[in-house]
Each structure stands twice: as C-alpha cells, then as structure tokens.
Write a structure and sequence with these properties.
The chain is an alpha+beta fold and about 120 residues long. The chain has one domain: Glutaredoxin (3-Layer(aba) Sandwich). The protein is about 40% helix and about 10% strand. A four-stranded mixed beta sheet has the order 2-1-3-4, sandwiched between helices. It is globular, with a radius of gyration of 14 Å.
Length: about 120
C-alpha cells in the first residue's frame, strides 16, 4: 500500500504536514478530503488500524461539526451511524490524515509523525 495523505489544501495545518512529508522525502499519494471523501469501508479499516476511538476521527473544531450540533448527538449514535456521517462529508473528518501500512495519523503533530512514519 502506498502512503496516503488526505488533506484539505486551504488548511494551514495540512500545508505544514505536506511540507514535512516532502522535506523528509516521504513518498505519498495525496487526496483532497472533500473531492474524494473517504468511503465507509476505508474509514472502518483506518479506525480499526489506528486503535483510536471513532470520535477522534471527527473534526470537532469544524463549522460543519458545530452546525450539526454533533457534540450533543454523537454520544447517542451507533458506530455505524458515525461512520456513515463521516463518509458523507469530508469536512467532518479530522485532517490531515496519513495512512500507511504501519500507522494511521490524525491531525499534524510533528513529533508524533517523526516517531511513527
């Protein structure tokens, strides 16, 4: 599997992450999170691979998250409903997202990326 970098180009954190990958000669295939929103199957696989709670995959600071009042709704939703919701709108997914054979990283924390990539 190629390294996959899923991002939103206007996001400054995503831009920093991309620059980090390029500066460290880490090859990747890039995907625009809105134009090519991850599918339910991809999200299920990545959530399992990451070992993280599904709520970590939500972009809690995003306008769409707030607009849909997800802080209140998520606790009452099933895992399938949450995955369905994430796959319906890329802006709900925490970004950037880096997926490799070894790891799934959400958001960009340089120290964490350096340790895990």
């Amino acid at each position: 599997m190629k390294n996959l970098f899923i991002w939103y180009p206007k996001c400054t954190t995503c831009q920093k992450a991309k620059k980090y990958l390029e500066n460290n000669n880490i090859s990747f295939e890039e995907r625009h999170i809105v134009e090519e929103t991850p599918s339910k199957k991809e999200l299920e696989r990545w959530i399992k691979q990451s070992g993280l709670e599904i709520k970590k995959f939500f972009n809690t600071s995003g306008l769409k998250y707030k607009e849909l009042n997800l802080k209140e709704k998520l606790p009452n939703m099933t895992e399938q409903e949450k995955i369905e919701l994430l796959s319906s709108n890329g802006m709900l997914i925490k970004r950037p997202l880096f997926v490799s054979d070894k790891t799934v990283l959400l958001g960009f924390k340089e120290k964490e990326w350096r340790e895990k990539i």
